[in-house]
Write a structure and sequence with these properties.
The complex is a heterodimer of chains A (712) and B (92). Chain A contains 24 helices and 24 strands. Chain A is an alpha/beta fold. In chain A, the strands form 4 sheets. An 8-stranded mixed sheet of chain A has the order 3-2-1-4-9-6-10-8, with helices on both faces. In chain A, strands 14-13-12-15-16-17-18 form a 7-stranded parallel sheet, with helices on both faces. Chain A is elongated. Classes of the chains: A alpha/beta (712), B mainly alpha (92).
Chain lengths: 712, 92
């Protein structure tokens, strides 16, 4: 065999890295490459001091398969060996790998045993010893040729200590970019491509983790979560089987201790720890393989890696020579996500009841408001709940119905949902229902988002239906089934209550919809001139890049241009948890509470809020605090605020936006005029007024039912 | 003619009576819906912590032995309270 390259992915591996590199220096491979992904413990310095090749990558660029493929690319040896940062090669390690590879020309991978470090607990030491011994029953190297060749754990291959023939890795297209077990996947791919793998007992490394009990349990949690995510393994658990397992393992540990010459008191001391270890392992493994059922924060707490959610599904590209793989999947949901779309298409809307007398005029109504899932801070939901609060104040009975087919809020039961709404949005009296199992009819059922329209049309025992439209939602989606369905909701003949004249016109002209309007209110208790000193150098940008319609890339370009022109201007970004990467310095506020935002609006000089569909609540709230703002001309803001109203409008162009911001920074008279116009504009914008407009819309929906009894 | 006029009148009266009754019943129904909303909202207020911890008492009590356990707890509580009352009485 020719040259050998060793690749070691490292992150905070200072504890053993020096020892590993020293052992490698003794073994003498032609090339050693350390790939560091953001160590903060001096690992990089250790690698530099050892004189090995060092490649630094960003932590987020790391992937078990991806990074090792990078190592293969950056090295040239015919034999590429992988070690982990805490696997120290034993003398003769490299020669043993070479020998194993030379056993047969079709050996594509080699591996060796993981030996316990001195001081490793007997549970782990025994496990390692007993796991690796059967690979070489007579102490000589062995070859595994397939998953069903009858050998001991034929699918096992571990990149803690493994070597690959470069040609074989190329044949399978390298390691798969999967979150875990890229080595075991490589073993399967090699077999499928006609390669074999070889075990050599002398290709050994010292490698055993020495966590405390809790650390081990968290590691097992991660391990079995990874197994579930990669191969679908679910660890079974039961009281009796666990008791049997623990008893057998403890007996094994005690026997092993005896064989190692442990004294009676030593064996006794280890017995309790062994029982705790094996029992805990069963529980942690079972939990890990069912992690998807646990809330993200609980997963993060149980995980040694601190990972809360499953990573995004990786591209699972099969090796070029292997046939495509398929795996049977059991059903994972009771019904399809958009089942209501199909049900509605098949059966049509549920028939409506006759309206009660007086409900189109002044009788109190039962208004059932159907909402999509929400998060704290959602502007659309804030508007819905503020309107509900207004309706309650006018004497109507309101109920809230959460339509959540994706199960995003299934862990929040109704009492919790209601408390969240009351604490973070509005102190509603209304009950909150999750789903429609307890549906008991309503005077008006109100859809509040496109996904809620289909369930609303299927609800029985309603006297009228209305559609509270906050924005033109087809534009929230790329061309897709969802965008098409969203468009269709405006053609079902519902009575629309649109959140701006712009939106109403769009609904009427594009979809032939019947609509009225309401105007967003402002919480004047919170958003009003603030008792803080106004700064004259601060531009505040609503940089909510999770909401593409807020045109954040355009705003950032404008701010970059502004920074070039006026480097002294202080730029503050808010509205999103993650700060964007920019070419200019800025301060990041993230997602702030209402009181903090009001203070921010009171302090800043110019607000920059861009809306490419319907306008946002944010400009009105800024205006209420006396902060003039810049928005885009030609969209809804222009129709709502007027071409020369309280908002400085700018064309869809970074320089034009930067120019508009500059005008407000430079021209104090213009600033004063816009600020005063803004405060006048929002003085009448109350949630009570908005709720009155919505109430009128609901009565109109009922009135139309009286006049046109067949309307949906 | 003479024989139909009273019929028409009585039918119209009957219709008015029925309409009034429908309106009354509808008003009752509306009040019932509003009452339901109030009761459910109050219940959600009370069951916040049960909901927070995903405890469904109905499901819990449907489990085998749950009713017996509750009966047992009540029996023990009754004995305890009687004992306490007796002790108080004896203590004067």
């Amino acid at each position: 065999m020719g040259t050998a390259s060793v690749v070691i992915p490292v992150r905070d591996g200072a504890r053993y890295l020096g020892e590993v590199l020293a052992a490698l220096a003794r073994e003498g491979p032609e090339e050693v490459l350390v790939i560091d992904s953001g160590s903060r413990d001096g690992s990089v310095d250790i690698a530099r001091a050892a004189g090995v090749e060092l490649l630094e990558i960003a932590p987020e660029a790391f992937g078990h398969g991806r990074t090792r493929n990078l190592g293969v690319e950056r090295t040239s040896g015919e034999l590429v060996l992988f070690l982990t940062q805490d696997a120290t090669p034993r003398p003769g390690w490299l020669a043993a790998h070479r020998e194993a590879l030379a056993l047969e020309p079709r050996v594509g991978a080699t591996f060796g045993p993981h030996l316990p470090r001195p001081g490793t607990s007997p549970m782990i030491a025994r496990e390692l010893t007993e796991f690796f011994a059967p690979f070489a029953p007579d102490g000589r190297p062995t070859v595994q040729r397939g998953l069903d060749d009858g050998s001991w754990h034929p699918g096992f291959l571990s990149n803690v200590d493994a070597g690959y023939r470069r040609e074989a890795l190329a044949a399978i297209g390298g390691f798969r970019d999967i979150p875990y077990a890229e080595d075991q996947a490589a073993a399967r791919d090699l077999f499928a491509a006609g390669w074999a793998k070889a075990y050599h007992p002398a290709a050994a490394v010292l490698h055993a983790h020495d966590y405390g009990w809790a650390g081990f349990m968290r590691r097992y949690f991660d391990e079995y979560r990874g197994l579930r995510e990669t191969v679908g393994h679910v660890e079974r658990i039961g009281v009796r089987s666990t008791a049997r397992h623990v008893r057998s393992e403890v007996t094994g540990d005690r026997r092993w201790l005896s064989e190692q010459g442990a004294t009676g008191p030593q064996r006794a001391a280890w017995t309790a720890r062994s029982a705790a270890h094996h029992a805990g392992r069963r529980v942690a493994s079972a939990l890990g393989s069912r992690a998807a059922a646990l809330p993200g924060p609980v997963q993060a707490a149980l995980s040694l890696e601190g990972r809360g959610q499953a990573p995004p599904a990786p591209a699972d590209v099969p090796p070029p020579t292997a046939p495509p793989r398929s795996r049977h999947r059991a059903p994972t949901r009771r019904r399809e996500l958009f089942d209501d779309v199909a049900r509605l298409a098949r059966s049509g809307p549920a028939p409506l009841l006759e309206p009660r007398s007086g409900t189109a005029q002044d009788a109190p109504l039962h208004v059932a408001v159907v909402i999509p899932p929400f998060r704290i801070g959602s502007g659309g939901h804030n508007s819905i709940f503020q309107l509900c609060l207004g309706l309650e104040r006018f004497g109507h009975s309101v109920s809230i119905w959460l339509a959540d087919p994706t199960g995003r809020q299934k862990e929040e039961w109704p009492g919790v949902l209601r408390a969240t709404i009351r604490e973070h949005f509005a102190p509603l009296e209304a009950p909150v229902y999750s789903g429609f199992d307890d549906w008991f009819g309503a005077d008006v059922a109100v859809a509040t988002g496109w996904e809620t329209v289909h369930p609303v049309l299927l609800l029985e025992d309603c006297r009228a239906r209305a559609y509270l439209v906050h924005d033109h939602e087809p534009e929230f989606h790329a061309t897709s089934a969802e965008s098409r369905w969203a468009e269709e909701t405006y053609r079902f003949g519902l009575f629309h209550i649109a959140a701006s004249p712009w939106l109403r016109t769009l609904l009427e002209e594009r979809y032939g919809a019947v609509a009225t309007t309401f105007r967003f209110g402002v919480d004047h208790e919170t958003y009003r001139p603030q008792p803080v000193e106004r700064r004259w150098d601060t531009v505040l940008f609503y940089s909510r890049h999770v909401t593409p319609r807020r045109a954040v890339p355009l705003g950032l370009l404008a701010l970059a241009a502004l920074h070039v022109r006026r480097p002294d201007v202080r730029i503050v970004l808010f509205g999103d948890h993650a700060p964007p990467q920019t070419s200019f310095p800025f301060e990041h506020v993230g997602v702030a509470g209402q009181a903090e935002l009001a203070a921010l609006y009171g302090e800043a000089t110019v607000g920059l809020v861009l809306s490419m569909t319907n306008y946002s609540l944010v400009p009105q709230e800024m205006m209420a605090c006396g902060l003039p703002c810049v928005d885009l001309a030609g969209f809804s803001a222009e129709t709502v605020f007027g071409p020369n109203g309280p908002v400085e409008l700018a064309a869809f162009d970074p320089d034009a936006i930067a120019g508009a911001v500059e005008r407000l920074l430079d021209d104090r008279a213009l600033w004063e005029a816009r600020s005063e116009a803004g405060q006048r504009f929002v003085a009448e914008a109350t949630w009570d007024r908005a709720a009155r407009e919505v109430e009128a819309g609901l009565r109109e929906a009922l009135g139309r039912r009286e006049r046109v009894p067949t309307a949906p | 003619m003479e024989s139909t006029e009273p019929d028409v009148e009585s039918r119209e009266a009957e219709l008015r009576r029925l309409r009034a009754r429908v309106a009354r019943l509808e008003a009752e129904l509306a009040e019932q819906a509003a009452h339901t909303n109030r009761v459910v909202a109050a219940a959600e207020e009370r069951t916040y912590w049960l909901d927070r911890w995903h405890l469904d008492l109905n499901a819990l009590m449907r489990r085998r032995g749950a009713a017996e356990l509750r009966a047992g707890v009540r029996a023990v509580r009754a004995v305890y309270r009687r004992g306490k009352r007796l002790r108080r009485r004896l203590a004067g």
